[in-house]
Amino acid sequence: MWNGYVMKIQIFLLLAVCFAGCGGDSNPTTPENEAPEPSGRGTIDSLLAVTLPLVYTAGDYYEYANLLDRRYTFQRLSRDRNVPMEELIWDRREELIIADEIFSGRTNSRGQDVESMTLSIGAQYTTAYDDPDEPAGEEWTEVWTTIDLHVLINDPLRPGGNGFLNLLIDSRQVFVVRPDPESRGDWIIVKQRDEFRINKGATGSSTEEAFWSDLKELFRPNGEYGP
Fold it and tell me: For residue 203, what pLDDT band results from cuts at 50, 70 and 90?
């Protein structure tokens, strides 16, 4: 009799565990209705003023690639006013080639490589953006910013110096951003345009003022110019 009583209790406990573990969720979560994971790109300001500087300073190639729209373009500044506009613009593929050269510390044709860098970006204002490249149904926003980028470059041929070149890049920078269609709730960079320097003033024989274009051209395969 006691054995039968114990067996009934065991069966009851097994049934209770089954109902607790196998029962349906009263509030099911599906890919269609779950909240997006925070990524640091949830606002325009967090994309440009927080995430981009962190990723660029860290030299994280893959995270940097995730910030750029597949149609991303960079428009550089040229010291030659006669350069055609189409030669001032490169696409995402070329931008990532340049970024890989910079981030990896790979030596360029001049024997230079990036030792370290720090980037900060301050957003000034945003405007509604009417661009002929903007497809119908997309929301593009233009953001004017100021950047402060310090780059320490190993430069063994630097005359009269200590083997280092300090680039001081303080300039305006214009970004065009849009909501990321592949990451709901996030923003992504569609375009970037290098602008004039603020000219805070370089100090020291090993420090030079430059554009962001200069740094990119310095490590761009077959680049045209650089400090």
Answer: low
